[in-house]
Amino acid sequence: MAYFNSFFSSQTDWRRSVLVGALVLGLGLALAFAFGAAPVGADQDPPACTGAGFTLNFDVYSDAGGTIPATSVTQGQTIYYQATLEWAGGANCNFGGEAGDELSVTLPDGSAALGSPFAVPLVEDLNPFETPLLSYVVDSADVGTNGAPADHVRSSASFDATSHRTPHQAIGGNSNLDTPFEQLIPEVTTEVHNESHEDVTDAVVPQGEDVHDMVTVAGTQEGGVPTGTVDFALHDGLLCQDGDPTVESGVALDGSGEAESAPFTPGVGEYSYSVHYDGDENYTEGIAECEPFTVVAPLIVSKTVETSYDRDWDWTIDKTGATTTLLLAEGESYTVDYEVTVDATSEDINHSVTGTITVTNPLGNTDAEVTAVDDVLNVSGAANVSCEDEDGDTTAPWTLSAGEVLTCTYEQLSASPTDSGNTATVTTSGDVPGGEDTQPVSFGDPTNETDECVTVNDDSVNGPQGVVICEGDADKTIEYSVTFGPDQDGTDVILECGENLHRNVANFVTSDQDQEGDDVGENDWLVTINVECETGCTLTQGYWKTHNESFHGGAPTDDNWDNVTPLAELSGFFTAVNSFPVVGPNDIAAPFTWFSVFWTPPAGNPYYNLAHQYMAAKLNILNGASAPTEVTDAITAAEGFFDDRTSDSVGKGKNAKADRPLLTGLAGTLGSYNEGDIGPGHCDEQIPEA
Question: Where do runs of H (alpha helix) occur along 295-449?
């Protein structure tokens, strides 16, 4: 793609002109026009103007200032074109300054420059018309187009104007500008690479390793990356001239201007590569410098790897039960399921890696000078190495003639369990390279194992007794059950009334093989069992309302009333003070006491029905009677109600309809308790002693 950048010059004279005719001198004021604007004035052509006589100059420059002619151009170069129209002098007519007067410049790619054609202003003596410098970037695609010679770039300028004489005469002409196109000179460099793409030019390559040549053809910024092909030649000898080379022709450059020869595995000897670049439309041919290399056979290094380690097993024990707490009624039994689980984890210790290293100088090689033999594990690092040659020499350096062997041993007694590779490296001086050998490290099965089995026991006869479990066992869990209850057949743990604690312990002992002492461990599980046994007996509300000091019916006072408050039956019933068990909304001034509430007839108000049974139940419990859960739940619900409501808020008859189901149900439960239908049973009512 071409761009506007600079102007071409003539092949022989950088300023070319075409004389078309003489302009007739006009009388009057000459019209002087600057580019883009033409002055307006009278036509003053000379009377004898001939209607001809102009000069069209078309030039090309290599600088933006229009001072250095471009005698030739190259790919990507910016050049500058300029066209100039001048009055030819003599009896020639002025021209331009009229509608339709045009000047055109056509660039090498066929495009018009800057919107050409230009309007031509009045051109007369001392008033030429000069276009601005029109820039153009040269492209090799411009070569030989538009009628130019096969190795030139062509541009053209033409104009069409009218003289100012009467009658007017047409004035016009054109000029072609052919500029030689010169190819750029590339820089061709080459390197000999080994199979790892390392530069081995003028170096030693071990026998058996692939080599290839890599060429780089570098261009210029203007010319871009060179394209085309190269020819590789592989020579015997170091000077690119010995023998008949092996030629690989027509290898294409890639998009970076690089190419590689086919890989080659040379034998022992001396070689060299030469490269010829075949050029392209922008660049000339080129030749790289000769690149030599030498091939020798490296030392043969082989090694063995032997591993060893010990494995020690550590055990844990976990004992669990299905529950930690039980609430049983007197005479009730319950079976709890237990599990004892042991688990093992191992620790591998005392890892070591040992082996031999054998170093051989191949037949046909010159003497090899071995300066060091090292052995390194990929994690734990260097091993200790000891070597001895065939003469019994144990100190480096060792000189090995062709076919001679150096034998070494190594050991790493603090190896890492994560070591996975072991490399022996032989270092030499001189032309014969050293070598290395890497072998995998695999520790496999342990050499020794300790504590791989345990014996599990439990202090419950139902649990494990002398059970042996080993680390390889899939199932390491022992299940069993313990029955808690009264002294009867099938009971493992006999319970008593109240709180019972049962701690069950399981333990293990390892089978230690290294005589360092057995490892032990234990774990326990605690179950808390509460046995609710019924105690005492209950009395009805009729008993409690009559056996107190405030009742004057002759019944002796029961001192259990003192457990309410020091005011006994005169304690407030859910009042703000002197209330039992909690304060409530009732007014003590009423008075609203346990005694007054007991002797208030319900008269259809469920509040008092519940209050009577509630007070009797509370007095029975204070007197030592046990209460089942349904009774304690009813008492809690009743207290919640009394703490929030008064007897007036419940009302009678239809007004009690909303509260009646709740209060009646609670009163029924507590009445059954007081009368002995539920709970520990009814007392034989005896008159307390005075």
Answer: none
Spatial separation of the C-alpha atoms in residues 586 and 605, rounded to whole Å: 16
Q: How far apart are alpha carbons 211 and 197 in whole angstroms?
A: 8
| Other Cβ atoms closer than 10 A to 217 | 27
Half-sphere exposure of 629 (CA within 13 A, CB side): 5
- Comparing 95-109, 248-262, 330-344, 663-677, the range with the smallest average pLDDT is 95-109
CA–CA distances in Å: residue 162 to residues 171, 175, 247, 600: 5, 18, 68, 140
Q: In what order do the strands lie in the sheet with 187-194?
A: 187-194, 211-218, 258-260
Pairing of strands 381-382, 368-377: antiparallel
Measured in whole angstroms, the distance separating CA 603 from the mean position of its chain's CA atoms is 82
In this structure, the strands spanning 300-303 and 211-218 are unpaired
Global pTM?
A: 0.43
Q: Summarize pLDDT for 529-543 with one digit per residue, the tens.
A: 988 777 789 999 999
To the nearest 10°, report the CA torsion of 594, 598, 604, 605: 10
Q: Which residue has the tokens 């009055």?
A: 87
Contact indicator for 234, 246 with CB cutoff of 8 Å: yes
Residues 260-299, buried b or exposed e (16+ Cβ, 10 A)?
Answer: ebeeeebeeeebbbbbbbbbbebbeebebebbbbbbbbbb
Assess whether the previous peptide bond of 117 is cis (omega < 30° from 0). yes
* 495-518 residue pLDDT tens: 988 899 999 999 999 876 555 566
Could you tell me if 295 and 205 are in contact, meaning their C-beta atoms sit under 8 angstroms apart? yes
| Amino acid of residue 82 | Q
Cα gap 501→493, rounded to integer Å: 10
Q: Which two tokens stand for residue 190?
A: 């080459």
- Distance, CA of 400 to CA of 30 (rounded, Å): 103
Largest Cα–Cα separation, the chain: 172
In this structure, what are the phi and psi dihedrals at residue 122, rounded to the nearest 5 degrees?
-65, 125
The residues, ordered by sequence, that sit 6+ positions from 473 with a Cβ below 8 Å of its Cβ are none
Q: How many helices (H) and strands (E) does the chain have?
A: 6, 37
pLDDT range class, residue 189, cuts 50, 70, 90: very high
Amino acid in the structure at residue 207:
Q
Decide: 548 and 361 in contact? Cβ < 8 Å. Answer: no
Q: Are 123 and 54 contacting, i.e. CB atoms less than 8 angstroms apart?
A: yes
The residue among 494, 482, 485, 427 whose CA lies nearest residue 458 is: 482
**Residues 190 and 288: beta-carbon distance below 8 Å:** yes
Question: Residue 649 phi/psi, 5° resolution?
Answer: -75, -20
Strands (E), 570-670: none
β-pairing, 325-329 vs 520-532, is parallel
